[in-house]
Specification:
Blueprint: H1 6-16, H2 29-38, E1 43-46, H3 55-64, H4 66-71, E2 73-78, H5 83-92, E3 96-99, H6 104-113, H7 116-125
Helix pairs in contact: 2-3
Keywords: Phosphoprotein, Two-component regulatory system
Domain Response regulatory: 1-115
Protein name: Response regulator
């Protein structure tokens, strides 16, 4: 979970807790790139507006790592909701684009979509949901 806002990080911590995921938190793009370069993640929730490098650049850097690209889903989680912002997210390689305020049902759908068990099913069927 990458967001410079402590309230958003705590909200996401609460939403992810029932799944018993191991969750790391980063406040800056540079911190996120460092973490994803040293650990393997199933999913990265990523804000766009961050101190230092922005979320689009972080997404590109994560997706540039060939090992992470196959295994790591990047979900943009941002207040930027214009079609242009969503296009930028898509061009950066994000797998999903969620906007704040967050629809909790949609968040749960996205979490379920990227659980390791559902990713295996998608990989076997050869389809990738965007």
């Amino acid at each position: 979970m990458v967001d410079d806002n402590a309230s958003v990080r705590m909200f996401m911590k609460a939403k992810l807790a029932p799944f018993n995921f191991e969750v790391d938190f980063a406040e800056t793009g540079e911190e996120a790139v460092g973490l994803t370069g040293t650990r393997e993640y199933t999913c990265v929730f990523l804000d766009v507006v961050l101190p230092g490098i922005d979320g689009y650049q972080v997404c590109k850097l994560i997706k540039a790592n060939k090992h992470a690209m196959k295994k790591t889903a990047v979900v943009m989680l941002t207040s930027r909701s214009s079609p242009f912002d969503k296009l930028r997210g898509s061009l950066a390689g994000c797998d999903e684009y969620l906007t704040k305020p967050l629809d909790e049902d949609r968040l749960l759908e996205v979490i379920a979509q990227f659980l390791p068990s559902s990713r295996k099913k998608r990989d076997k069927s050869g389809s990738k949901q965007q």
